[in-house]
Amino acid sequence: MGKRTQENVYNKSRGRKMDDNRVQERASTGIARLDEMMDGGPFRGSVTLVLGPPGTGKTCLGLEFISRGAIDYGEPGLIITFEHFPKKLLRDALSLGFDLQDLESKGLVRILFTSPEIFFEQAQVSGGLLDTMVQELGAKRVLVDSISHLERLARDPVKLREIAFTFTNALLRHGLTAFVTQEDPGITGDMAAAQYGISYLVDAVIVLRYVELDSSITRAVMVLKQRASSHDKTIREFWITDEGIRIGEPFKDREGVLSGLPRKKEIDAFMEVFGPRGKSGGKGEGR
Q1: Residue 159 belongs to a domain
Q2: pTM of the full predicted structure?
Q3: When you count CB atoms within 10 A of the terminal residue's CB, does the N or C end of the chain come out lower?
Q4: What is the secondary structure of 20-80 as a DSSP string?
Q5: Would you say the C-alpha torsion 96, 32, 219, 55 has a positive or negative sign?
């Protein structure tokens, strides 16, 4: 084997090693508890689907992912929205404690408000709108809100799958770490992973739900899927605050949380009514 050939083999081998290391890198969501649930956060260059009914906090989660990336890690982020005017996103981000307008002025965030038709067309074109914006911003992260609007492009399920595949690849070819939101029409109810549009294409799925708990509504979050990685299987309560999203402990004493109407576990309900075994027995039984 000649010297030049040996060098080529070495360089290719070293390149594979570097690529392997890069593939394993994690990108923090900016929410410590969510990173823990995802075993360190999403992989860099991956797509995470955030799924939930209206108002559960999908956009808020995405905005924090973009804002924290820019503020804490210096990673520019692109926000692509099909439904919210930029002013509304600026207002929503401020309510979470993030000044997107300031981040825009510093060249760390850019918001693109467009239609699904235009974006999908441009995403397929080399040097199109997506390529240009990613290159000009030096984007490392992207939020797409919401992919549900791509359903307007076709009614045929096979065609929709092709569109979703093309759309996902357009994000991945730039090595972007992406959060993509999708509307779940059911306010509460059991989950069936197969019904979730592009779930088979993405690397991770985060599910947000409403939960009725003690006659009030709260929110629940879980990591339904994370490809090539372990992840937390618990369902946790979370809150949207003026300092971002806060995630609590798992619903330990409840079951049926994802149905939206959790109930106490049978043993806990029994103990609450009758108390520990022995307290109601003993002396009373001997009388």
Answers
A1: yes
A2: 0.79
A3: C
A4: HHHHT-B---S-HHHHHHTTSSPBTT-EEEEEESTTSSHHHHHHHHHHHHHHHH---EEEE
A5: positive
Q: How many domains does the chain have?
A: 1
- Does residue 274 belong to any structural domain of this protein? no
CA dist list (Å): 196 to 85, 164, 201, 205, 237: 26, 12, 10, 10, 22
Instruction: Please provide the size of the chain in residues.
Output: 287
The CATH number assigned to the domain holding 152 equals 3.40.50.300
Q: Which of 33, 122, 111 is nearest to 70 (CA)?
A: 111
Instruction: Decide if 46 is inside a domain.
Output: yes
Amino acid at 181: T
List the pLDDT tens digit at each of the 287 positions of the chain. Answer: 443 433 343 333 333 343 555 567 999 999 999 999 999 999 999 999 999 999 999 999 999 999 999 999 999 999 999 988 999 999 999 999 999 999 999 999 999 999 989 988 888 888 899 999 999 999 999 999 988 888 888 888 888 888 888 888 888 888 999 999 998 866 555 444 344 457 788 999 999 999 887 778 889 999 999 998 899 999 999 999 999 999 999 987 655 555 545 555 443 433 344 455 444 444 444 43
Asked if residue 263 belongs to a domain, the reply is no
Instruction: Report the run of H or E that residue 116 belongs to, with start and end.
Output: helix 116-123
Residues 6+ apart with CB under 8 A from 21: none
**In this structure, are residues 180 and 149 in contact, taking their beta carbons and an 8 Å threshold?**
no
Q: Tell me if 235 sits within 8 A of 191, measured CB to CB.
A: no
Do the Cβ atoms of 168 and 201 come closer than 8 Å? Answer: yes
Strand partners, 181: 50
CA distances to 122, 271, 275 from 280, rounded to whole Å, are 72, 11, 8
194: containing domain? 26-253
